[in-house]
Amino acid sequence: MSLHTLSYVGFNATDLDDWRQYATGVLGMQVVDQTADTLRLRMDEKHHRFAIHKSATPGFAYSGWDVATRAELDRLTTELTALGYPAVEGTEAERTFRKVVDLRVFTDPGGNRVELFYGQLSGCPFTPARQFGGFKTGQLGLGHIVFMTRNMDAMMAFYGVLGLSVSDYIFIKPVQSRACFMHLNARHHSFALLGGPQDVFHHIMIEANSLDDVGMANELALRQGRTVTMSLGKHTNDEVVSFYTMTPSGFELEYGCGGRTIDNEEDWQVVEYDDISFWGHLGPLRAPV
């Protein structure tokens, strides 16, 4: 595999203080620092996993993927450039802010900023903002991200070059569309695509270490007045028990636990499911009635 982990993400938001309250009070993240323009959040021993940028237009900003070495960064740069996706060197300010040794920026077929890097600052102490058992990260990365796309084939080809492989599919009946789930390490999927009428970021998932942590986050979200977009439920393909809330940036965040892993690539079989969940996750994709 070419990539190793999905290691950081950047989002835009109009209200950094609202993000801070949500990330600490509901999600349990640690604030690394906050300025008038940025908010960085820690989930584990990496310097930060989330960076929130002040902007008049909220939403997705970028994803950061760890390629482990300079040689791998050079190889992927050559392959992507040959396919028509040239690299832009990250600036010194960008490398410093992201706490990485080297950084190159690409644009995927959906127009999304993709950052490949190596040398992320690690070994930082993690102090959760509230009492809970921490996040499941490490060699699995920070979680997964999902995009809706009008260009399924082109997007799959781009991320395939980066080393992501198909885990499985779900045909989502309410929207009559197929979703493709892709992995690059033992996490069932670090990346997924949903065919649709526009190119837009759909959601991010982070994984806690216990069901109690998920249940507490669900309660805290309700106590904060956050919009729960999908109720507690269990997904069919990755078997995660989770719920979804609307973030201050206007996209959904899935908070779950118990995800299955792909421990033996040779024995893994790609299948398709016809429902997103065994139970629960009531909302737009699984109507309550």
Chain-wise SSE layout:
Elements: E1 5-13, H1 16-27, E2 30-34, E3 38-42, E4 50-54, E5 59-66, H2 70-82, E6 88-89, H3 92-98, E7 102-107, E8 113-118, E9 144-149, H4 152-161, E10 165-172, E11 177-183, E12 191-195, E13 200-207, H5 211-223, E14 228-235, E15 241-246, E16 252-257, E17 272-273, E18 277-280
Parallel strand pairs: 1-4, 5-8, 9-12, 10-17, 13-16
Antiparallel strand pairs: 1-5, 2-3, 3-4, 6-7, 7-8, 9-13, 10-11, 11-12, 14-15, 14-18, 15-16
Helix pairs in contact: 1-5
What are the salient characteristics of this protein?
single chain, 289 residues, alpha+beta, 2,3-Dihydroxybiphenyl 1,2-Dioxygenase, domain 1, 2 domains, ten-stranded mixed beta sheet, eight-stranded mixed beta sheet, globular, iron, dioxygenase activity, dioxygenase, metal-binding, aromatic hydrocarbons catabolism
